[in-house]
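#onboarding

Welcome to the new folks! Below is a worked example of what a typical request in this channel looks like: someone posts a single protein sequence, and someone else replies with the predicted structure as tokens. Don't worry about understanding the tokens yet, we'll cover that in week two.

Example request:
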Amino acid sequence: MQSSNTKQDLFLVAAFSAAVLTMPIWLAPIGAAYPDLMQKFAIFGLFAIGFNILFGLTGYLSFGHAAFLGVGSYAAVWSFKLFSMNVVPAILFGTLMAGVFAAAIGYVSLRRSGIYFSILTLAFAQMSYNLAYSVLTPITNGETGLQLAHQDPRIFDRAIGVEPTAGLPTTSLFGLEMSGYSGFYVCAVLLILGFIVALQITRSPFGMMLKAIKSNQNRLNYIGVHTRPYALTAFIISGMYAGLAGSLMAATDPLAGAERMQWTASGEVVLMTILGGAGTLLGPVLGAAIIKYFENIFSSIHEAALRSIFDFLPDWLADPLAGVLSLFVGEGWHLTLGAVFMLIVIFMPGGVIEGLTRLSGVFRRGTGTTRVSSAVQQPHSAE
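Example response:
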């Protein structure tokens, strides 16, 4: 049985890696194969995977995870300013600082559970957001945002003889620029590594304890199991994932602003996780991709583009049809996303992954097989 699970996990990792690395090919037909958008798919996929470790496995719903995203971004930009334009120190520094910040917030917030925990995390995130705009302006540069400057020390670069250029330097990974397709593939590799780590956590005894906390934390407390250290560890790991995502945002675009810490950013990752399937392995990544696709592709469609699509229809039909559909694209893309989210929550509470599982079950019934692969099931049922 253990060997079977190992084979399934290896197949899952291989399939996931292949899908991520071939994005430029299979995203081309739907108009999403440009580097900036694929970088967002990878970065927010990491963000959602980390959030799922806390919410999906442990059951603690945080409304303040954008704070760690912002901390990671600020720390990464400071790394570029002080140390080097190489992204490795920036990613390590951003992830570490987000983990420290998560430990402090989690230590206080996890003294409560349920809605009280959620409100505490939201309060801390809003405090962080407002501090970044006011008291911490010397560190965050307030409304302008933290940016690179020509006179930044960059002591590591200068120590190895890298002379400043006439303009602002660009971020790189040992000479590989973090823009275009090279930047996407760096983000893609980190997404795959983040997925593997999340898979190992899910399958580990630690992951089983997190699922037990979600299932019945009171029972664990009654039998003498102290659950808070496990929940705090999950909170820190989740915060570090968010810090890694924030660091990659700064690495691909060396700018950090307080807007990344807004409550709307925290709500977005909640939607990503629920939309894809909370507690599943692939769901958060799918949810992140769906939301970012709507945000970047649907928002760019306008009524004139719809009219050109319906040119083959008579004017009396094309005009009202384009007019109605225009409400759901462009500035109204949130309406489409909201409708999709409602349909999924009502008919597929387990998210997109539940829908794929049902579809898989329909095909398997035709072959006389009713067992669905654990790769797309809820982790607790896959064990």
